[in-house]
Design a protein that fits this description.
8% of the residues lie in helices and 56% in strands. It is mainly beta and 156 residues long. The termini are far apart.
């Protein structure tokens, strides 16, 4: 497991970072680095205290990621078609938020760390209508990075 170090500079930094994630509410479409179509949507749930991302691509089962604040950071649980549920955490820093880096903390239903699982997610906020998600898949200690570039759908 990865030890997590660092603290947000203040609770307002976490609130601002979570608000930036909340601003993603709506439907998005895009492509991966191989040009394959992908879609995602962000929905505010549980009285706006959590964000549910529903991600789909043509050649894989739908995936869900649930984001929520957690003390000095933002936590996520990723529900993977591999039937494991990695938990990750990002600790936002002060200044203009350009990206959030979520690092693996633990997982449910993961037999051991050599089994395939999502290890890291970096969400980059390009502008209000463009984001990039960089997922890191780890199996047997080897990482593969997959990049998805999204554009907000009109009226989404």
């Amino acid at each position: 497991m990865t030890a997590f170090v660092g603290h947000a500079s203040s609770p307002t930094v976490v609130t601002a970072a979570f608000a930036k994630l909340q601003s993603l509410a709506g439907d998005w479409e895009g492509k991966d680095d191989d040009g394959n179509a992908v879609r995602t949507s962000f929905k505010l749930v549980v009285s706006n205290t959590a964000i549910l991302e529903t991600f789909s691509m043509s050649d894989a089962e739908e995936m869900l990621t649930l984001y929520s604040t957690d003390g000095d950071g933002i936590a996520l649980v990723h529900y993977c078609p591999m039937n494991n549920q990695p938990r990750m955490r990002a600790i936002p820093q002060g200044g203009e938020l350009k990206e959030l880096a979520f690092l693996f903390q633990s997982a449910t239903n993961l037999p051991d760390l050599a089994a395939g699982h999502e290890q890291k997610l970096v969400i980059r906020f390009e502008d209000k209508d463009h984001i990039t998600e960089r997922w890191t898949w780890r199996v047997n200690g080897k990482d593969t990075r997959i990049v998805y570039r999204f554009v907000r759908k009109s009226g989404g």
